[in-house]
Amino acid sequence: MRELLIVETRDAAEHRGPERMVELAAGMVRVGVPATIFLTENAAFAARHRPDGLAASAIAAGVAVAVDRFALHERAIGETELESGVEPSSIDIVVEHLAVGNCVMWR
Amino acid sequence: MSKAKTICFALMDPPFEASRTTTALRAIDAALRLGVNVNVFAYEGAVMLPFRHQQPHSNPVHGRDTQEEDHPLPREWVAGLIRTASERGLNFEWVNCGMCVDERGAGDAIDGILRGAPADLWRLASASDNTLIVPTA
């Protein structure tokens, strides 16, 4: 596997799944596979700054974290509220990963 | 992306229910705008996405007539994808699972939608550079 992109749609405050996805992405990084989590829909809430939050945990583990600007706008989340290191992105990121043959998981 | 790639999307969710339908259609639109050919295999509730008889409605609670409400229709979004692909000279193949269509009486789809079988997911994925399964929530 060249790289892994996880498209996370679930709100981390309501589901345990996003936490598991951070563990999976961190594990992939540990074995040498670059991993990115793209937060969209209600998962965008997890992009906000919180010292013990999902985004901070992922970034500390070497996982790249991107968030859907569209989802931020829908939820009135400003980019100044984001965890340091979270990259606002368009949904093009999904296509770009698919087009180069990366593994993309939609959760 | 110098050489035109082809990406296959498998959609499962019905229209008017989940955010992921909108997100998935945004991803398909992005692929076309980035010059990528697209294959779509729609199964289960997703076969209703291009259903021809979807109709907009008014919103009496908010006092808006049909035109003011401007209710979005997934069949128009799918038609927009077909139009975008055509304008850009890209291949766009949308196959509805025939069994799923029959279960739901969804046979009357907009122009450009093909009827197929579960094996078409294999055919479309095999003919693509990569595949994204968009599962139901």
Structure description:
Chain A contains four helices and five strands. Chain A has helices at residues 17-30, 54-60, 69-74, 92-99; strands at residues 4-8, 35-39, 64-68, 87-89, 103-106. A five-stranded parallel β-sheet of chain A has the order 4-3-2-1-5, with helices on both faces. In chain A, strand 2, helix 2 (54-60) and strand 3 form a beta-alpha-beta unit. Chain B is α/β, with parallel strands linked by helices. Helices cover 35% and strands 20% of the residues of chain B. The longest helix of chain B is centred in the N-terminal third of the chain and has 15 residues, at 19-33. The mean pLDDT of chain B is 95. The interface between A and B is medium-sized, with 18 and 19 residues.
Unreliable residue stretches of chain A: none
Structural class of the secondary elements of chain A? alpha/beta
Shape of chain A: globular
Characterize the main sheet of chain B.
Answer: 5 strands, parallel
Helix content of chain A: 25-40%
Strand order in space, largest sheet of chain B: 4-3-2-1-5
Q: Count the strands of chain B?
A: 5
Number of strands of chain A: 5
Average pLDDT of chain B: 95
The fraction of residues assigned to DSSP E strands of chain B is 15-25%
Count of DSSP H/I helices of chain A:
4
> Number of helical runs of chain B?
5
Strand percent estimate of chain A: 15-25%
Estimated helix fraction of chain B: 25-40%
Give the helix/strand layout.
The complex is a heterodimer of chains A (107) and B (137).
Chain A: E1 4-8, H1 17-30, E2 35-39, H2 54-60, E3 64-68, H3 69-74, E4 87-89, H4 92-99, E5 103-106
Parallel strand pairs in A: 1-2, 1-5, 2-3, 3-4
Chain B: E1 6-11, H1 19-33, E2 37-42, H2 66-69, H3 74-87, E3 92-97, H4 98-104, E4 113-116, H5 119-126, E5 130-134
Parallel strand pairs in B: 1-2, 1-5, 2-3, 3-4
Helix pairs in contact in B: 1-3
